[in-house]
Amino acid sequence: MRATTAGVYGLPPGITSEQWPLDPVTGYPLMHGFTLLLPDDYRVHGEDIVAVSFFATAPDHNDGGAPDDPEIRETVLALPSHPRLSRMTDILDYEYAALLLTKAEYDGAFATPPAPLALATADRPRWLDVGGACAFFEAAAPYARKMFAAPPRADLAETRAIALTPRASDPNAGKGPQDEHVRQNPPTGYQPYYYYVGGVPSRDNFRLHDWSKDHAHNHLGGTMRPCQAVPEMSPFYIEFEEYFGGYNFGGGNAQLDFKEMKFDWACG
């Protein structure tokens, strides 16, 4: 069943197989992590751009650093692509992609993954045979398996619906996240979610602000809780954990700025 707000795992809607982004590192299709229907005030690319689909390196292709095969890379990047495709690379040179979708696309049929390049020599990623949800569940730590009410089916179309709930209190709503000590842009008024008693940094003095204690880990905009440094982003971003689509972030989490098309993750 299509989620009315968002779907994680499964298949992306409204694109052709030819528009599904391939991985320039391996030549296999990038794994679909999630498609999110954006609230009205997050539709920063125009009224008709209503959703974003995120694609990632498969967890079993993400281990220690990306190999570089110029022939695969050049072949993938020369292929026709979706008109609103943005590609992103992480610190390990692994590949990610995001597609901005129109309402007609979001309401469209689910896509079928394309065949890998004939040049592809890497092992076939598990998700292509059993679906992203099942592949993640098979390899997930016990705490992550608890996110599933029941074991997912071995099916490419197996998905999980996600609902958006407004945060009751967040002083960082509408503000671009930044670390005051290393920011490169003018101050946005963004506040960290923590403080130190007496202004003295130490483990014993670390405290959470009351307004941050009930914030969900997977969220749109507002206060960011990265596992390491705060990446400077626009207010229009989504922060998500490994189980929100099934990734290998070393136990950490990630942030996708879908206005500037910037991506960052850090291990836990």
Description:
This protein has helices at residues 70-78, 103-106, 127-130, 132-139, 142-145, and strands at 6-9, 31-37, 49-56, 85-89, 95-102, 159-162, 194-196, 206-208, 219-220, 237-241, 253-257, 262-266. The protein is α+β, with helices and mostly antiparallel strands and 268 residues long. Strands 4-5-3-2-1-6 form a 6-stranded antiparallel beta sheet. Strands 9-10-11-12 form a 4-stranded antiparallel beta sheet, with no helix packed on it. It is globular.
Spell out the blueprint of helices and strands:
Blueprint: E1 6-9, E2 31-37, E3 49-56, H1 70-78, E4 85-89, E5 95-102, H2 103-106, H3 127-130, H4 132-139, H5 142-145, E6 159-162, E7 194-196, E8 206-208, E9 219-220, E10 237-241, E11 253-257, E12 262-266
Antiparallel strand pairs: 1-2, 1-6, 2-3, 3-5, 4-5, 7-8, 9-10, 10-11, 11-12
Instruction: Summarize model confidence as the mean pLDDT.
Output: 93
Beta-strand percentage range: 15-25%
Low-confidence stretches: none
Please identify the structural class as seen in this structure. alpha+beta
What is the global morphology? globular
Strand order of the biggest β-sheet: 4-5-3-2-1-6
Multimeric status of the protein: single chain
Secondary structure: helix percent? 10-25%
Number of helices: 5
Q: Write the H/E string, N to C.
A: EEEHEEHHHHEEEEEEE
Number of strands: 12
Report how far apart the termini are. Answer: 33 Å
